[in-house]
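Hi P.,

Sorry for the delay on this. The queue was packed all week, but I finally got your sequence through. Input first:
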Amino acid sequence: MSSENTPAIGGSAERRRKRRAGFLTIGSRRINGQRVPIDVRRHSVRLPGLPPELAGMTIAFAADFHFSYIHPAGRIRAAVDRMMELKADIILLGGDYLTRARHSFDAVISELSLLDAPRGVYAVPGNHDYESGVNDLGEAIAHTHIVDLTNRGMRFDAGCGEAAAPSDSRCLWLGGLDDLWYGRPDHKAAVKGAPAGSVRLLLCHNPDTVDLLPPGAADLILAGHTHGWQVYIPGLSRAFIPKQKARYRHGFYHTHAGRMYVTSGIGHSHVPVRYRCSSEIVLLELS
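Then the structure:
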């Protein structure tokens, strides 16, 4: 696994060269006019207590799609196509599907509804979704196979749709949390029904949600929101980042609530620029 608190960037010489050069993205293009791919960052994640039958399960995770005039449907479709190429067992979506209320959730959810996985596609909202009308998001999702996991939980056993005996605590529990800023994240509701010995994975939008969680709440927490700060200049960027986004940037972190991964996301906020912080999809293989 990649070291904690650092972006999981591949080790190839070409990729290191781009990182040193300060890889600048404007919208969906490099400064030389070449189209920028969405990076796939792969991690093997060891979860003690995971049933052997679930070892090797894969989870594709993405957040912060930010559908808007600077990040149109074609860009969303590119992310969808890339996620489908990964053939993950589960797909998780971490919120902020729109940037502004004048855009329709129907358009972006129509694209995201093309996602499919053997064990399902699950989503939680972000702050921009509340600003844009979270009820409209819920209605758009309700007309698809995507599961709204807000303050809810799901149990995964050995087989797709295969229920274990009620007394069997060996399972993976996936819980989703509401947005920290505008919603009401309810950890108790998200893990209601989870067996005492289950391996727990929590999906949320804002990484600061961990402050509301009890110690050891999850074996793994997945979050977005920060965009990896979009423009990352070591030693300088932090001074210009709003306080509410300054604690976590990108990568793995150890927290009192459990280990957490913060994705750099797909889209852009405010300006269509990324510097040393590319868009990403995260593929986790559980062991």
